[in-house]
Amino acid sequence: MGNKESFGENPRRVGLAERWWAPYKLKLNENYNFVSKNVFIKFLYYIILFGGLTVVNLICFIQWDFRISGKENVKLIKNTSAITVSNHVHDMDSPMLTRAFFPDTPYFVALKHNFEMFAVGLFVWLLRGVPLPSTDDLKSFSKFQADINHLLQTTRHKVHMYPEASIDPYCRKLRNFKKGAFYFAVRNNVPVLPMVFVYPKPKKLRLLIGKPIYPSALDGIGEMKEAKAVVTVAQETRSIMQKMMDDYYGGLANED
Description:
Strand content: 5-15%
Helix content: 25-40%
Number of strands: 7
CATH topology: Glycerol-3-phosphate (1)-acyltransferase
Largest sheet: 7 strands, mixed
CATH class: Alpha Beta
Strand order of the largest sheet: 1-7-6-2-5-3-4
């Protein structure tokens, strides 16, 4: 089992979701289906995907001039399940990055309060949101891990996680990583797709997508114990994401 601290919440949470009215409290237990198999839910997902998200993506383009670079790298993991990771710097960055994977968007691991928001929480759930249980609730946490492992082992779906574990709006720096995303990559031997959101100008947003990182291809990882392999993959991923950000901001003066 992955170390519970690898998935723990960062105490700094300043996003919109924390301020939204939350009359509903989501209850998680060892019987909760973190990855829904309900056919009706899947039907609603595609309605929202082709209807609501199309409108959202148009708004994001108009409001934040949102664009994606490196979308061709998504095709490299088209035929396999994968873990995708990015920094978390905008209230809308989850729906924004679905554009890179359309029409088969990733499952999103999100803190429980995102599902408790009035009205919005329902859409988070329908659009493949996966609530992260408290690490103090061992049974729910074990079921969460089992469901994600099963998804990665038996499908070609992607699972998106924010290794910074909290939102920091408009942040231009990469923060410290939790290891949970990389535990799933190592345990299931699936690639990690690194992505970073960057701000070329205030209130302008870009998503940069790097090439997939294959844990089994990293030097010496086959001889490592799982815990060390997880740390190695996390460090490699963070290093690549940091370089993506440094290269972008370093060349920003050359942009039109």
